[in-house]
UniProtKB/TrEMBL annotation:
Gene giving rise to this polypeptide: LOC110748103
Keywords: Nucleus, Repeat, WD repeat
This protein's name: WD40 repeat-containing protein HOS15-like
Primary subcellular site in the record, as a coarse category: nucleus
Transmembrane spans: none
Source organism of the structure: Prunus avium (Cherry)
Length: 138
């Protein structure tokens, strides 16, 4: 009986050692998987950053092209406006330099735009309230 109990006890110890060995291997595999997951996440992050940088460069290039196009159009428009002003001055008998017409444009992101409804025809005048964020239109 004692020999049998010792055998069973030894078997239990062997099973415990084997279980510990498996658990140790599982932990090692889990660490390897975590490392691999971290590498994959880092690679994905770097790819997203590259895509973002490419998109940003594309947007900058488009803005530059638009600016060049606008500059060309602005020059044409200013020339046209100067001619119109000179003609008006001559018609009215006014003399002197033509008045300065601002030609700078600011691009407003669509997220900052609010479309107001209510008018059924053109809006001829509008003004911001000095007391708050109210807009009067007519």
């Amino acid at each position: 009986m004692i020999k049998e109990k010792r055998k069973n006890l030894q078997k239990d110890r062997d099973k415990d050692k084997e279980r510990e060995s498996y658990q140790k291997k599982d932990k090692e595999l889990e660490k390897e998987h975590e490392g691999e997951r971290a590498r994959v996440k880092e690679k994905e992050r770097q790819e997203r950053e590259k895509e973002f940088e490419k998109d940003r460069e594309r947007v900058e290039k488009n803005k530059e092209q638009e600016k060049q196009h606008e500059d060309h159009n602005d020059r044409d428009m200013v020339t046209d406006q100067e001619e119109k002003i000179n003609v008006k001055h001559e018609e009215n008998g006014a003399s002197g330099e033509p008045m300065d017409i601002p030609t700078t444009y600011v691009e407003i992101p669509s997220s900052d735009v609010t479309i107001l409804e209510g008018h059924t025809s053109e809006v001829c005048a509008c003004a911001w309230s000095p007391a708050g964020s109210l807009l009067a239109s007519g």
